[in-house]
Sequence to fold (292 residues):
Amino acid sequence: MIYCEKPIYCWAMVIIETAKELIEYLKIYRNKELGFVPTMGALHNGHLSLIDASLQANEITVCSIFVNPTQFNDTSDFDKYPRNFDKDIALLAERGCDVLFLPTLESMYQRESLLSFSFGALECVMEGAHRAGHFNGVALIVSKLFNIIKPSRVYFGQKDLQQCAIIQSLIKDLSYDIEFNMCPIIREGNGLAMSSRNQRLSESEKEEAKALFASLELTKTNLLSGKSIKEAVDLSKEYLKNNISFELEYLEVANAETLQEIDSIEQGQEYAICIAGFLGRVRLIDNIVFVG
Ligand code: AMP
Fold:
């Protein structure tokens, strides 16, 4: 266990690098309300909004930073994933985070796991369909972290809407006594959803990427004005073609809870419009949720 090296910010933030030490350390907080924010680091204001939500509702906030290899289906994406640990430590400590869990690979994976998860229809669409094994890796690491940290509340971002549904399913099916909280997407001024991967975009790509959010809003507007799902999606694909060189993987309108594709919009129901694809070599995702 180490204390942050920058005492001016970090008098209270503890950094722990192994599961064993964290379990031991958290024993003193067993009867306290503990909020947990799992991340892969390269922190931005989206992550920090989850930390803020946890700090508001809990006595102790634990954040983890671990670039989890088992959830990457593309090794070059894993290798290129931004890692800014020193900056992350300073940001978390400044924010008031109490504990940072920064585990080593060996601490999280002593061996290749034999366990595998299945989330039925939920993992057969969108991210699940396009990133084989992704949610298995997510569920594996998140279960490990829940078992080590035993949080009262956890905070995830709507940015990864399908991940939120997967984790809620995991909490139900494994009877974790954990309150799940989904926090809104934090965006740049031009609408681009904040993401660690945005660091790999050039300034002009960041500007171009505003077309993703605009395409989601356009889909919503067209659906609410009575266009069919096919018409609305086709118009947004056309808009994307004209405004960004984006290799689209999917643009889907789904039931916001089950994330299954739908045929038509019904009044009063909640829907999600989700998009994913590549801008250059950087994979971006985004979504909006709306009521029909
Ligand atoms: P990551 O480090 O990408 O694994 O993200 C860690 C958590 O931060 C996940 O629950 C994400 O959904 C959430 N998150 C990432 N980007 C944003 C954002 N722009 N706004 C809100 N939450 C976010």
User: Anything to note?
Assistant: The beta strands are 2-3, 14-16, 34-39, 60-65, 99-101, 153-157, 179-183, 246-255, 270-279, 282-291. The pocket of adenosine monophosphate is lined by residues 39-40, 46-47, 49-50, 156-157, 159-160, 183, 185-186, 193-196 (CB under 6 Å). The domain at 2-183 is CATH 3.40.50.620 (Rossmann fold).
